[in-house]
């Protein structure tokens, strides 16, 4: 059984590491939060004083940090890449732009280590229940080395391609669909409200028709509230659709729907609604079309 | 039990009229097709020689014709509005632009009759199984008069508003969501294919995630075929998103996502793919982004 180093023990990382321990893996973890390290120890893991200490003697180094910049800091500035054993596998599970993953992979490879790109979806609930969707990319033989680790954390483990960055692209495409699906519900509601259609009945009808989407059913009800609970903020989609459009620029792909949707989230953030629930992108449509 | 005249006995209309007969309604029908009239008689209905003859003595005149122009021709040129009894109810079930419905309703009202605007969704299968979704608008008391008729043809009957045209708007909004949902899947596939992600695996992942939509699951698989079966043509969405944008113009609502999606269907039709399956809007993205 491979020895795992785990850096980034936040809301997602801690339950993921706990599931590894539950399945019998040896896990040495590092996080800037002492509370997170205490919790890891309670779950049976070992604490390290730094990322490079955690990576020492490990076969796989899992990075569940916030973004690509943090991953780079851990690997290249914090020294974890050097302490990871020769030919060890860096498992980059944070959500990063595809181009950043490609750049990181190149540096990891030049240092004689390997990288698997493996973003996740399923949220904190999926992390706790070990039901994450894991979208892994990298050479098949490297993927096979860490597959037992993935199977301990998720129940929908996909090998989406041979090149690191392809996993990040699948996650990027996922966010493209999610962001446009939210914005188009707002666009539909704005049009219907122009002629006084009852939006609650409209939502009920659309939820049961070919017009339905996961986002329609989830965000639709909150779109009809003036100050709903924040489950995910407008600024998350400002960032994520930004990553989508960056991926479009890097690959030279025109993405007219994603670009238009991004503008609506951006405007919402610009009006001061960045920390509101992302369903409130509807306020951009209301403002634009002069609907009270 | 109210007496029903039924004009437009096509793929949808005939099974709808048959369901009315099965529930004990008296139905007198008209269609330009002799075969359709024979089939109505076989189902227990009466045939008429014209729309105005069918409407004579009827309490409700159902129009299941192709578009608003045909509805106008039946009512105002064919004379059916005059033969329908005073205060009788015109039930406009064809898919029409909201503004056209409002114009028709005004003329019907001035002639001393009433109008309920009641487009449907659910397709031929729903028409046969009496499981249509019916989106009816008009004064509540008028709606109640014809509700037993609706209940005989559908199982999801909604009163969406007091003003005729609001039903058409709900149907319009439905098509806005459907059209954008198809186009955004094509946009997502185009981006992913730029980096060689396996699109079959991508579709499988997206179908089980928050990125899912009814259209993703239905059109996604056909989008990955080069010449799929045609279940609904590109030109249907050229028309339907055209109705959406007309509704936006009439109500002065900016609809950036619907407008961008319409361009992609329009370009597909312009390249000669109008009669292809609407999933083939992906060819617009492939052409635009130079993807083989």
From TrEMBL, chains A, B:
The UniProt record lists the 3-hydroxyisobutyrate dehydrogenase-like NAD-binding domain at 165-284
Q: In the UniProt entry, which residues are flagged as the active site?
A: 171
Keyword field: NAD, Oxidoreductase
Q: Where's the 6-phosphogluconate dehydrogenase NADP-binding domain?
A: 3-161
Write down the species: Microvirga tunisiensis
The record, for InterPro entries, names: 3-OH-isobutyrate_DH-rel_CS, 6-PGluconate_DH-like_C_sf, 6PGD_dom2, 6PGDH_NADP-bd, HIBADH-like_NADP-bd, HIBADH-related, NAD(P)-bd_dom_sf
Q: Does the keyword Oxidoreductase apply?
A: yes
Report if keyword Cytoplasm is assigned: no
- Family under the similarity heading: Belongs to the HIBADH-related family.
One protein family per Pfam: NAD_binding_11
Biological process annotations from GO:
organic acid catabolic process
Q: What is this protein called?
A: NAD(P)-dependent oxidoreductase
């Amino acid at each position: 059984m491979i020895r795992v180093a785990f850096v980034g023990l936040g809301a997602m990382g801690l339950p993921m590491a706990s599931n590894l321990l539950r399945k019998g893996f040896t896990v040495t973890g590092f996080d800037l939060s002492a509370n997170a390290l205490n919790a890891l120890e309670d779950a049976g893991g070992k604490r390290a004083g730094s990322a490079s200490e955690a990576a020492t003697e490990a076969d796989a180094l899992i990075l569940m940090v916030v973004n690509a910049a943090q991953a780079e800091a851990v690997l290249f500035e914090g020294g974890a890449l050097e302490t990871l054993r020769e030919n060890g596998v860096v498992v980059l599970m944070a959500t990063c732009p595809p181009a950043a993953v490609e750049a990181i992979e190149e540096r990891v490879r030049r240092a004689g280590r390997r990288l698997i790109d493996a973003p996740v979806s399923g949220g904190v609930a999926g992390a706790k229940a070990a039901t994450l969707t894991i979208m892994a990319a990298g050479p098949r033989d490297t993927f096979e080395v860490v597959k037992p680790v993935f199977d301990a954390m998720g129940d929908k483990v996909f090998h989406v391609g041979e090149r690191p960055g392809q996993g990040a692209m699948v996650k990027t495409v996922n966010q493209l669909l999610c962001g446009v699906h939210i914005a188009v519900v707002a666009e539909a509601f704005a049009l219907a409200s122009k002629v006084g259609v009852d939006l609650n009945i409209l939502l009920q009808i659309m939820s049961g028709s070919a017009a339905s989407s996961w986002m329609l059913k989830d965000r639709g009800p909150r779109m009809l509230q003036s100050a709903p609970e924040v489950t995910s903020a407008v600024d998350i989609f400002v960032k994520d659709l930004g990553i989508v459009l960056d991926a479009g620029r890097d690959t030279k792909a025109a993405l007219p729907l994603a670009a238009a949707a991004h503008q609506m989230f951006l405007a919402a953030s610009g009006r001061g609604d960045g920390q509101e629930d992302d369903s409130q992108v509807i306020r951009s449509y209301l403002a634009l079309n002069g609907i009270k």
